[in-house]
Write a structure and sequence with these properties.
Layout lengths: L1 H5 L3 H48 L6 E6 L2 E6 H39 L2 E3 L5 H4 L5 H6 L3 E3 L2
Parallel strand pairs: 3-4
Antiparallel strand pairs: 1-2
Helix pairs in contact: 2-3
């Protein structure tokens, strides 16, 4: 199917190029959404770890407790489990921090890509579109790609 679209000449090439630009933009947006989703999931894990650590801090260190390791429930003491939980929580917090920086990078990449290809998103108001005094000649010269949200 792609080969038949290429035979269409210059008139057929432009829509394909626009479709490719929109697909790449949507792919970048999806990657950012996945990162944001993972950050939210890990932040919930950090909150759960905080709850458990706060409960175990005030508990007798020799008291037995149970911990899930790789799907297996293991019996340990509080003094064995608490340091491991704190360490695990700290590692998750570092991972969240790294993922948040990746989300920021992906956002900048999206903005650059959108600006480079003059992509307009449906429903997104732009100050320049409200200005009707712009000459029609300038509006005809600019070309943009419309991406749905």
């Amino acid at each position: 199917m792609a080969s038949s679209a290429n035979r269409g000449g210059s008139a057929g090439g432009k829509p394909n190029q626009e479709q490719e630009i929109v697909q790449t933009f949507n792919k970048l947006r999806q990657e950012q959404r996945i990162l944001v989703s993972k950050v939210a999931e890990l932040e919930m894990d950090v909150n759960e770890h905080n709850l458990v650590v706060n409960v175990l801090k005030d508990t007798d260190p020799e008291r037995k407790c149970f911990r899930m390791l790789g799907g297996v429930l293991v019996e340990r003491t509080v003094k064995e489990v608490l340091p491991a939980l704190v360490d695990n929580r700290n590692k998750i917090e570092m991972l969240v921090s790294n993922l948040e920086s990746k989300v920021d990078e992906k956002g900048k990449e999206l903005i650059e890509y959108r600006d480079k290809h003059n992509i307009k998103i449906r429903g997104e108001g732009t100050p320049s579109s409200a200005n009707t005094d712009e000459p029609k000649e300038t509006a005809a010269k600019t070309q943009s790609v419309l991406a749905s949200s």
